[in-house]
Amino acid sequence: MKNSLSAAQYAIVAIILMSVFKLSVLPSLTAQSAGKDIWMSISMILLSEMISLAFIVPVSLSGGLDAIRQKYGKVVYSLISVPIIVVLIIKTLVYVSEVNAFSSSYLFYNISTDKVGIVFVIAAAYIATKGFKGIGRASSLALWTLPLILAVGLLFGETEADFTRLKPVCVNGVMPVFESVDSVLFWGFDFSPLLFCRLKRRESASRGGTCEACAVFGAVALACAVIALVYATYIAAYGGATAISPHAFAALGSFNVVNTEVGSIDWPAVVCWLSFAVFAVSFNLGAVGEWATGYSVKAPFAVIAALAAICVFGPLFFYNFEKALDFAESAVKYFTAAAGTILPFAAFMLVKIGKIPEADGGGTYEKVL
């Protein structure tokens, strides 16, 4: 089935959803309030996301939100799924604007951001039509870019990092840390698309989905530690300039700069970040397609409709990234955070109350009954 993922694919997709847009402009935004304690701010956000993942994984093991639709009907399904879809569309609009800003201000010069956004979203939508399984396989293949960055860094890198810049901790108290968490809530709780997919359980497993769940949590927890380390390294490398230095991952990966006629490309980090950004957005669009199947609408049609909406409303509302930032830092961040925490918990409780069994190998609810 197109919405079924193995434990390895599920973990990879979860890490991409959680990390890719936290490694661009977010460190500089967080540093504007938390200063050099940004690693503490991101750790708090990541911990909250891990808690939400603890509710999402059991739902995926039971067949995803589709199993809830089959058990409780379309009304309950709509009450949970529609707000999630609204949040995914909102986040995609802002994230595409972020890609525009990256492409126009860091990657290339003197290009139209509208053209970048349209090309990016079309590529993401095409991948989304392949289903979660296709996105998971593509994401697995793209992992080679991470060791590429490490190899290039070891060969050409001359990064000067002074970790003593992290001291003293909380010199202005803990309130700036909490204020920074509040200001960037929009970039948290990105696991919601996983509610629409099935986490396959090995047929030979004797303890239900325990092994799969532990593997997913272990991989995501390790990724959380790496993200916190990246934030600490960013402070060690850039110090107080972090607040005015966007595009963190690309900046740290700028070991080998290639100057061409179309711009300046820090190619290892650029290839990695843009690839995973495409996959993250495609998974959001894929969730829209999977959601629509619950109403007997073919997934590709729903993906194309979402693509059209993003292409129309994106430039209309977010003609520049500053506009998108103002929107993301407005009260809408509380709506997205609430949807990313309350709705997964509600889905988890419905699975437990309805005693929906775990789906073998990604099978449907009816099959396991």
Describe the structure.
With 369 residues, this protein is mainly α. The chain has helices at 7-19, 26-34, 38-61, 65-72, 74-107, 113-128, 131-141, 145-156, 175-183, 210-238, 248-252, 267-293, 299-317, 321-328, 332-353, 365-368; strands spanning 4-5, 198-199, 257-260, 263-266. The strands form two sheets. A two-stranded parallel ribbon has the order 1-2. A hairpin with a 2-residue loop joins strand 3 (257-260) and strand 4 (263-266). Helix 1 (7-19) crosses helix 7 (131-141) and helix 8 (145-156) packs antiparallel against helix 12. The chain is globular. The two termini are 18 Å apart.
How would you sum up this structure in a few lines?
The chain is mainly α and about 375 residues long. It contains 16 helices and four strands. The strands form two sheets. The protein has a two-stranded parallel ribbon with strand order 1-2. Strands 3-4 form a two-stranded antiparallel ribbon.
